[in-house]
Amino acid sequence: MIFRSPYPDVTVPDVSVHRFVLARAAELGDKPALIDGPCGRTLTYGQLGAGVERVAAGLAARGFRKGDVLGLFMPNCPEFALAFHGTLAAAGVVTTVNSLCTVQDAAYQLRDARALFLVTVPQFMDRAAPAARQAGIREVFVLGSAPGATAFTALLETREPALPSRMDPAQDLAVLPYSSGTTGFPKGVMLTHRNLVANLLQTACVHHVAEQDRIIAVLPFFHIYGMQVVLNLALWRGATLVTMPKFELEPFLATLQRHRITRAFVVPPLVLALARHPAVGGYDLSSVRAMMSGAAPLDAELETACARRVGCGFIQGYGLTEASPVTHANSDEPGRCKPGTVGELLPNTECRIVDTGTGKELGPDEDGELLIRGPQVMRGYLNNLEATAATLDSDGWLHTGDIGRVDRDGYFTIVDRLKELIKYKGFQVPPAELEAVLRGHPAVADAAVVPLADRECGEVPKAFVVLRGDVSAADLMAYVAERVAPYKKIRAVEVIDAIPRSPSGKILRRVLRARAQAPGSA
């Protein structure tokens, strides 16, 4: 059966993302749009709207044309919004690069996306410069100054307006975030202007962000959650964002207190800290009215404990990069939230639950894979027809790879993941990538990586290895750590005689997951 949203459908206009999000920028004028949390630097709505047009003109003057791709490799700061929406105003496409990426990760993404330009910060140049060279980037722009890069301010100096380009919001890409999907290496997720605008309208039906809200922007803008639910939703609604370049508990708490933050978007590890860490009691968090958690499942007990300690409303939602990202959410209206669930379907969104073995459609209170259909669902994976066909079927259903159920009231709960991805603090860690690195060690004959449950991080990667030489677990973890981003590091190693595999050669991860969670496992 097909489950449908209890909310009436929303009408999605044919408009580009930057025109939609910044439609009221001139009207809001001197109202702060973004405030740099650490230093207090402010970008008003008027400055943002005008700056976006100047960035677009600056890019166009350098030969940037419709459909060209610009990479953003930078932490949260006010200039992120200028570069992001300036690129869209130039009819370009933004690909956001994880701030923790290695040179190899960044080069792969920039090359695969065929990025023309890159915007970064001086602190990232040790990775950005070699990645740009490997990917054939034409010009690197940097906030401030750095050898071999052009100052980002140069893009704001062009006086001639960018020539308008004819756009088809339903077909033209806006962003190319990279996701591992249900399995394998990262792939470019093709999200159109219509995908993003639709999801903002859908999300606004349950998250009632208002002009008077002051929102903490600690979730990274490079992640679809931070990009859409934090940055774009807040700017569209005329709220003020206070940015933080990275999460550290006490600076985060101090920012909540100093800026009288009213709404916070968080992930489970942060929820755990807010619920349990003794430092929380030393700060005045009375201004916080609403908190929303996403990116990974959260149990009802922890959700309730955090809400009680902070003294605010608390809701959960669910989504994935391939759906722009939100498909389900609890409402922030009193009485419409069920703790421990990810809420109801958003407007215009349909869902089926199917048996993972037979494909049979299931009903309420039965566990199966979630399939999603709606205007927020991606066009497909960039230059990867095979992966697209495996994830997006001919009837438009997005196969999420997540196992869930729906109760009789229409509230969904995420139970498990069919997909192999490990979720470390909301970041995606593909086991195949770590296994390839491990197998590159001369002492490793075979390897498999599975998630190990962790109270603080959600999941951490644990490796099972078959050895053909003498090497310690610590040395193997160090070997991997030197070759991957910090969030992808192996956190535990266990030596076994053989990796369990199916007759077709696939790793039997369920066997290893059970072993990893068994009492006394190494």
**Could you give the count of β-strands?**
28
Number of helices: 15
Gap from first CA to last CA: 44 Å
CATH class of the largest domain: Alpha Beta
The radius of gyration is 23 Å
CATH architecture of the largest domain: 3-Layer(aba) Sandwich
Order the strands across the largest sheet as they lie in space: 3-2-13-12-14-15-16-17-18
* Mean model confidence by pLDDT: 93
Beta-strand portion reads 15-25%
Name the CATH superfamily classification of the largest domain.
ANL, N-terminal domain
Report helical residue fraction. 25-40%
What's the shape? globular
Structurally, the number of domains stands at 3
Provide structural commentary.
The protein is of the alpha/beta class. It folds into three domains: 240 residues, ANL, N-terminal domain (Rossmann fold, 3-Layer(aba) Sandwich), CATH 3.40.50; 130 residues, 3-Layer(aba) Sandwich (Rossmann fold); 96 residues, ANL, C-terminal domain (GMP Synthetase, Chain A, domain 3), CATH 3.30.300. Helix 4 links the parallel strand 4 and strand 5. The longest helix is centred in the N-terminal third of the chain and has 17 residues. It is globular, with a radius of gyration of 23 Å. The mean pLDDT is 93.
